[in-house]
């Protein structure tokens, strides 16, 4: 259940693709400044159109491309990345930026215009430092490494995966060394984090995660110690895949992600690892169906559709502008986790949707009460697989990956050490034994795709979702009653107004304060979890 690979989701190289631009009405500025600004926007729009095309080519690689096509596809992606890089680093862009920044009327530009110029400058400076050869090699290697990852995961053979992963890691280290200087970060890893979470550092994340980890461990112990354990086995029923596909469509319809009408801007397909990709009017999600585990695809679709409605509800008038993208992957994850968990695992949602589920599954869950079902989907237990993890243990999976990346990027550990370190941390934090590398270090596609620095955004998204919930409750005090009655529209409107429609107008640290009145704070999320699971477990 990842956005991952989202154009904005969301693929690493496409995430910076949010530098998308169209014209804004100019006022109180000179004709020369206005002309330079309009030309700058026009050039950047060309880049964005190609970047959006690249995201769909990637989607095809994961969903429809025949196995034999991977070599050709790697060359296609490499060639397209070259074209995008050349357009992104055209000297004219630098000239227009300099002319705008030096113009005496620059201070008369409005907030939106200045933010666009800032974001274009940041992207241009970073891209001009990256050699075209490195950009193309990385795009090509990504396709190859992901393809090998799929085979290695199926074969449970890390040694098959290791050579291609090593090539990808070396390419990302080269980029990190270059970006470290232009971004002004202290470490190469901070430069990679900044791609996904602007102005965040490993040190600042570590401080936030320390409080998060301590709070989670307290709640986890309360759940494990409770004598009132939910029966999670009650969910393990054989549900035909066609029924699960109908469930996915109903969930999408409920939250306003259109995949069926003649004007639909979305679709749901099947892949090994769920993700979201696209831009504004064409945002696609994927899931993975298991006949004996309906909950896996159900919550995967809720998660990915949460990403999708964020992308589809950005301001239309900002389309093709840098401010028309998302502010960070942490905020993007806050939307997917909000929809998946705060909404999708709530008793109120299932008060409405449980009868629909039974209808779509030929009454497969009719023997369960509503509360028994809700408690089962919220069962807390340490497990091996991140995307299947419960709300309490999920962030511990993320913290493990973050700690490993901190050692991996600077070379403190080698790739050969990776499986052993992974397994040790899973034993330490979650008390589980990893039996093979497919359920261990190879369970995620992110490193195969070169998305080092991405994992922290998942936990940051959870923290933000808790802060958003507390703030939303001040505006919609009866949101639970509305949800239980099958009404999601006002909740969605609140998210659209406060998060989606603000796009990338602010850095994430500024945006969270504007919405909630405070900086990043783990307390609301921990309080939400404690209240919820005290009901589930009766502690």
Task: Write up what this structure looks like.
- Helix 4 (91-102) packs antiparallel against helix 5, helix 5 packs across helix 7 (158-183) and helix 9 (202-225) runs antiparallel to helix 15 (391-408).
- This protein has 539 residues and is mainly alpha-helical.
- The chain contains 21 helices and 3 strands.
- The protein has a 3-stranded mixed β-sheet with strand order 1-3-2, with helices on both faces.
- The longest helix has 33 residues, at 31-63.
- It has a domain at 12-204: Neurolysin, domain 3.
Topology of helices and strands:
Elements: H1 12-15, H2 31-63, H3 70-88, H4 91-102, H5 111-129, H6 132-155, H7 158-183, H8 188-196, H9 202-225, H10 241-255, E1 268-270, E2 276-279, E3 282-287, H11 294-312, H12 329-343, H13 347-360, H14 370-377, H15 391-408, H16 418-430, H17 456-475, H18 479-484, H19 489-498, H20 508-516, H21 523-537
Parallel strand pairs: 1-3
Antiparallel strand pairs: 2-3
Short recap of the structure:
The protein is mostly helical and 539 residues long. It is built from 21 helices and three strands.
H-E order: HHHHHHHHHHEEEHHHHHHHHHHH
The number of helical segments is: 21
Structural class: mainly alpha
| Unreliably modeled segments | 3-27
CATH class of one domain: Mainly Alpha
């Amino acid at each position: 259940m990842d956005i991952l690979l989202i154009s904005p989701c969301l693929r690493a190289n496409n995430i910076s693709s949010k530098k998308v631009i169209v014209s804004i009405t100019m006022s109180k500025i000179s004709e020369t400044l206005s002309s330079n600004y309009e030309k700058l926007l026009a050039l950047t729009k060309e880049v964005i159109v190609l970047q959006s095309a690249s995201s769909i080519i990637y989607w095809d690689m994961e969903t429809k491309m025949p196995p034999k096509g991977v070599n050709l596809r790697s060359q296609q992606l490499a060639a397209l990345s070259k074209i995008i890089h050349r357009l992104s680093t055209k000297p004219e862009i630098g000239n227009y930026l300099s002319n705008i920044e030096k113009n005496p009327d620059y201070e008369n530009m409005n907030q939106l215009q200045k933010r666009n110029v800032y974001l274009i400058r940041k992207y241009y400076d970073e891209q001009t430092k990256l050699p075209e050869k490195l950009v193309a090699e990385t795009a090509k290697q990504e396709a190859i490494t992901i393809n090998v990852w799929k085979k290695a995961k199926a074969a449970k053979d890390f040694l098959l995966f290791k050579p291609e992963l090593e090539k990808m890691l070396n390419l990302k280290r080269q980029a990190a060394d270059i970006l470290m200087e232009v971004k002004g970060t202290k470490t190469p890893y901070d430069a990679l984090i900044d791609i996904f979470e602007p102005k965040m550092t490993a040190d600042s994340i570590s401080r936030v995660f320390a409080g998060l980890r301590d709070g989670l461990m307290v709640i986890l112990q309360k759940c494990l110690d409770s004598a009132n354990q939910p029966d999670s086995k009650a969910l393990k029923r054989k549900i035909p895949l066609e029924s699960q596909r109908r469930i996915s469509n109903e969930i999408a319809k409920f939250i306003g992600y259109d995949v069926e009408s003649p004007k639909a801007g979305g679709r749901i397909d099947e892949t090994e690892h769920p993700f979201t990709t696209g831009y504004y009017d064409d945002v696609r999600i994927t899931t993975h169906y298991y006949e004996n585990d309906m909950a896996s695809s159900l919550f995967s679709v809720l998660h990915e559709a949460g990403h999708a409605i964020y992308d589809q509800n950005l301001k239309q008038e900002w389309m093709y502008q840098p401010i028309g993208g998302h502010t960070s992957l942490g905020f993007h994850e806050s939307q997917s986790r909000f929809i998946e968990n705060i909404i999708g695992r709530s008793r109120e949602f299932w008060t409405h949707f449980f009868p629909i589920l039974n209808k779509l599954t030929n009454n497969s869950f009719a023997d369960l009460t509503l509360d028994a079902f809700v408690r089962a989907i919220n069962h807390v237990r340490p497990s091996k697989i991140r995307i299947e993890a419960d709300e309490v243990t999920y962030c511990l999976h993320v913290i493990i990956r973050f700690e490993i990346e901190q050692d991996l990027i600077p070379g403190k550990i080698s790739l050969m050490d990776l499986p052993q370190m992974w397994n040790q941390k899973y034993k330490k934090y979650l008390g589980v034994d990893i039996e093979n590398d497919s359920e261990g270090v190879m369970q995620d596609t992110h490193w195969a795709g070169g998305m080092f620095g991405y994992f922290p955004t998942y936990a940051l998204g959870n923290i933000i979702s808790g802060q958003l919930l507390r703030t939303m409750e001040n505006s919609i005090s009866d949101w639970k009653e509305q949800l239980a009655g099958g009404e999601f529209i006002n909740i969605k409107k609140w998210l659209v107004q406060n998060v989606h429609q603000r796009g990338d107008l602010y850095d994430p640290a500024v945006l969270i304060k504007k919405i909630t009145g405070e900086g990043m704070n783990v307390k609301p999320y921990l309080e939400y979890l404690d209240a919820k699971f005290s009901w589930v477990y009766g502690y």
